[in-house]
Amino acid sequence: MILSVENLCVTRGGGTLLDRLSLSLEPGSITVLAGPNGAGKSTLLETLAGDLPPTAGQIRLDGQRITDLSLPRRAELRTMLRQQSLIAFDFAVTEVVAMGLHPHGISADSPHGRALIAEALADMDLSAFADRSATRLSGGEGQRVHIARSLVQLRAGEQRSLLLLDEPTTGLDYRHQLALLQVLKAEAQAGATIIASLHDLPLACRLATRLLLLARGTLLADVPPEQLDPALVADVYAIDPAEAALLLGLGRSPLPLRLAAE
Amino acid sequence: MTAAVAAASSAPARLGRVGRTALLLALALFVSIVANLRLGAVPIEWRDLLALIGIGEGDPGALTVLTGIRLPRLLAALAVGATLGVSGAALQALFRNPLAEPGLLGVSTGAALGAAIWFVFGAGLFAGLASLDLLRPFILPLLSFAGALASVALVLWLGRSGGPGATVLMLLVGIGVNAIGAALIGLATYISTDTEMRALSMWMLGSFAQTEWAVLAPALLLIALATTALIRTHRALDLLALGEAPARHLGIDTDRLRLKLGLLTAVAVGAAVSLSGVIGFVGLVVPHMLRMAVGPAHRALLPLCAMGGAALLATADLAARLVALPAEAPVGVIMALVGAPVFLSMLIRTRRAWL
């Protein structure tokens, strides 16, 4: 699925949230959005998902304007995972994951539906939690449930389409961050177009085929991960270049490593 | 979806629970129906009941009591109970809160205002209509139904918005509309005579004593249509548990769904209230108990709420008829006496989550 964005502007209450953004994303690409708080990452994802009507500009999925598509059609073509998903009432983990089947009209007890659910549960290391209540999980476990639900929604489509993830690694431990990384790479290989916002730059560099750095609603850089240098990071986040190098794992720790010496 | 998912893995357990609960409710429903038909001031024999369904012959006097009094009254109690159970569960799904109930949208207050207008001003306003015997039984139900619809329409119209806070806004508007309705009822009560006030307060306590076929038939039709339509939204109600934005991401038009649920519950509960007057707690207690028994997935929950509500209210009405023979107690009072302590125990048990 080709996502093309032309001259996208979003203004709310007099403030400019996104300022003249243009992008074109190909199937198989993983684009990571990074930038300081309030940069417009979530706004961009919500606008791409069709939640927020753009003030100006166009968003097209394979040539069709997303705002022209009905809600059920949008749900077939794009999967969106928001920050901090919650669930009211104590649905079982399997039931929540099965909700991803809804847009595609696949029954959860058809062999196809069952296979999709089981695969997503296994990918997110949730097989043992299948029958547990989704409301009684830790933050990270809950996040994995909603990732699994999104994977089901993405995979149940006739072809891999658009996957939008807003800070999907929130609450995940290293093991599950790496599991997510691997799953997303496999989905991109299978033809999905993936956009995720991440705060962890080293992780972003390992995941992304392309990095977009945003600040105050403006696209400051659009680079392959190899080209992310400390000067650019320091500029985007308004931090010291030495600290930026440290964040990227390029500098030496300024703290004396006394423990190691002993 | 539920039973389907249950089969996927979670369970023979959950599927078994749904089956067991359905069986138990069917049994309770059957016992309650038979007891309602047999017990009361006039004794009814088994052979009279059999005669009612066309087997053998019964006592003609007993059959008159059955078809003229007990049967319509029983049907009304079953229909109102089913309506309140299903509407309660649907609104709890919409507001994502187990403490929501039809009264929140102003349904009961609007209906009561309609009834207050009839009891206090009816003689003057509807003198022409009321003198026609044919129309007379319809005036009170129509006024209370109109009151229920009007107040829900006001809540939906004032609370309309496409934003993420639309449901909360609707809830707050409901509180405001309820307050206005309560004030107007208070005003009507204040200027009413003692007789008018007594008639109004009896109606507000809820009772099936006045059920007549002429009023029952159209109300049953509305209730059947609206309740079936509510049950058919089960999939969308499940997805709403994720929140409105995630439900939209899964293809649900949440603005339309909110409107649809508001209108359907208004029609169903409006028709119910026009039959019985105000009866609280069924819409709160029945979905809560059944959610604990079979889980929150609505494909099983909604039909079970219909069965549970019907069984509960028919039993409560039986108690209302028998508790003070030959007089009877208002069924709304019986429900509140049982329902309120259950409601409080719910709050006490979930207290920690609120603090």
TrEMBL record, chain B:
GO cellular component terms attached to this protein's record: plasma membrane
Residues passing through the membrane, by range: 22-39, 74-95, 107-126, 138-159, 165-192, 213-231, 263-288, 300-323, 329-348
Localization of this protein: Cell membrane
Main localization category: membrane
Keywords: Cell membrane, Membrane, Transmembrane, Transmembrane helix, Transport
Domain of life, per lineage: Bacteria
Gene3D superfamilies (UniProt xref): ABC transporter involved in vitamin B12 uptake, BtuC (1.10.3470.10)
Membrane topology category: Multi-pass membrane protein
InterPro entries: ABC_BtuC-like, ABC_transptr_permease_BtuC
Coiled coil segments of this chain: none
A molecular function GO annotation: transmembrane transporter activity
GO process annotations (BP): siderophore-iron import into cell
Protein family: Belongs to the binding-protein-dependent transport system permease family. FecCD subfamily.
Protein name: Iron ABC transporter permease
Species per Swiss-Prot/TrEMBL record: Sandaracinobacter neustonicus
